[in-house]
Amino acid sequence: MLPTYLTLMLLFPLLGGLTCALAGRKLPRTLVEVFACATVWGSFLCAVLAAAAYTAPQVITLADWFTSFDLSIPISLYLDPLSLSMTVMIGFVCGLIHVYSVFYMREDQDYARYFALLNLFVFAMLTLVLGETLPLLYLGWEGVGFCSYLLIGFWYADPANADAGRKAFITTRIGDVALMIALAWLFQLFGTLSVTKVNGMGFLMPGSVITMLGILFLIAAMGKSAQMPLMVWLPDAMAGPTPVSAMIHAATMVTAGVYLLARLLPLIGGSQVALAAIAVTGGLTAFYGATCALAQRDLKRVLAYSTISQIGYMMLGVGAGAVTAATFHLLVHAFFKALLFLGAGCVIAAMHHEQDIYKMGGLRRSLPLTFWSFLVGAACLAGIPFTGGFFSKDSILLAVWLKGGVLYQALYLLGLLTALITAFYSFRLVFLVFAGGNGHVHRSSGLTVMQLVLIPLAILGLFGGLLDLPAYLGGGYLSAFFEGLPAGDLLKVSHEQEIAMQVLAGVVALLGLAAAYFRYGKGRAERMREAQARPSALIGFLAQGWYFDKLYHLVLIRPYQACAGLFWERVDRGVIDASVDGLGSGLGGAGRLLGRWSTGKVAVYLISFAAGGALILGYLAWLAL
């Protein structure tokens, strides 16, 4: 039955997307919304049934896609613990986001295009996750990027939204080119593009080749998962509807890079240089995202930078070789980040689409369900002890510490510092948005249902640690489930050491909470004074994302514009256009000169004929000499 379940898992969202795109305008709105939601929940049901029927990793070939000489690309799906856990998570979280979207987008008239793209987004991500051949994975990879471009710029009538979509599309293309080069090189080296075969053939190649392949895959992951230095597109991606932001950040696009590296870790894990590069990228990005989130005023941009930071933690885990820990945090992060974004959507809808957190406050009493749900999400993000985020983040830090060496110990300390900053900005957000006096909100008819969607996500985020509890608490399900994977090694650590490191991580998180309380939890008046105060140079530096956008504008965009201006003014207009215009003017002048002989007088014509005849006779006489 597994082939049937996997096929339907892909076909349901594809059918929903195509139906909404082709016939959505002609169908009643309610029918389109119900059908779009039903196809995603049907896909989730197939994932659950596949999980129930799963016994061992297996490759399922559905058909031949392409065959030419030595290159054969079948449509093959691969189900193992990694892909299975991802499909269940994607189906559930995206299903909730679809239900939320029905009420959040109630006033938007372009519902058919929205739900078509949302369904196709789910299909593309599932294709990426289940693809056993790298070209099929690449098809899903590009599909995710294309759908994100269209959804980020969904309200394209506003030039800022259209620019944000183009920025995401162009920035991620850098990583896509690296991935394409890596795939071509892999086929040239191994003669196959099967993920399972390639993962088992790394020992045939020199370490330098594996290192270069690892760097190419890392660049691909940088683009799709918004890691330094290709992270500049993600904060601007908040231009899209809030449910789209939740889907991109929680269940689909930004996790694709982490999944790619985790999937190919048996291959690239043979190079310690490549693993170190992945770990350093993740550690620095986690710190970068956390520091930038400290200074943001826009509610969604705070969460965007937090996503950059948390994906950095996952990359750090992959760089330490801990695919189980990285996947654990990926799953728990999907729950609490979707919770935070959807909670932010409730706040924005209730505040008449206001997103400046310094203009909020007092929503704890006005939106109690949103407050408690958002508080759970913030606690998970901050890593408050015994939440799901605490256990998942600690498993990564523990893996980094156990990796050993000066580099990984330095990255562990950087991860602890990032955790402190994360706890601070998480509760800064809670205090600024929900604390204080009574806030006045606008209650729409769909707000109640939107808030109800938060409850299952809050429960999963809060108790997500049960997915992989430490050994001293009875062991974890994911560790046992992933044990058979080539990169699913269990961490060998004593109970005392693990408890000590968890206590340290818990203390760091509580210190960040306490600092946020003393800074922002003393009343609305002080917060408003801070909002009106002129920001310092450091705050401006962090608020502008370390000025990476300005750096790229200076280094890349301005030289490109200068070259384009040079070729346009000097070459195109000065040479090409001038030559064509000059030729046209010359021919026109010659025509006008000859036109002067067209006077209509017969005598002039006769004289002309006589002069022409004389010239011809003279020329012939000269030739006869």
Automatic annotation (TrEMBL):
The compartments listed are: Endomembrane system; Membrane
Its keywords, alphabetically, are:
Membrane, Transmembrane, Transmembrane helix
**NADH:quinone oxidoreductase/Mrp antiporter transmembrane domain spans which residues?**
134-410
What is the membrane topology listed in the Swiss-Prot or TrEMBL record? Multi-pass membrane protein
* Top-rank lineage group of the source organism: Bacteria
- Membrane-spanning residues: 6-24, 31-55, 75-99, 111-130, 136-157, 177-195, 201-223, 244-262, 274-295, 302-324, 330-350, 371-391, 411-435, 447-467, 499-520, 602-622
- Broad class of where this protein is predominantly found: membrane
Matching entries from InterPro entries are given as: NADHpl_OxRdtase_5_subgr, ND/Mrp_TM, NU5C-like, Proton_antipo_N
Its protein name is NADH-quinone oxidoreductase subunit L
Tell me the name of the encoding gene.
Answer: nuoL
Does NADP count among this protein's keywords? no
Task: Give the originating organism.
Answer: Geomonas diazotrophica
Q: Which Pfam families match?
A: Proton_antipo_M, Proton_antipo_N
Q: Which residues form the NADH-Ubiquinone oxidoreductase (complex I) chain 5 N-terminal domain?
A: 65-115
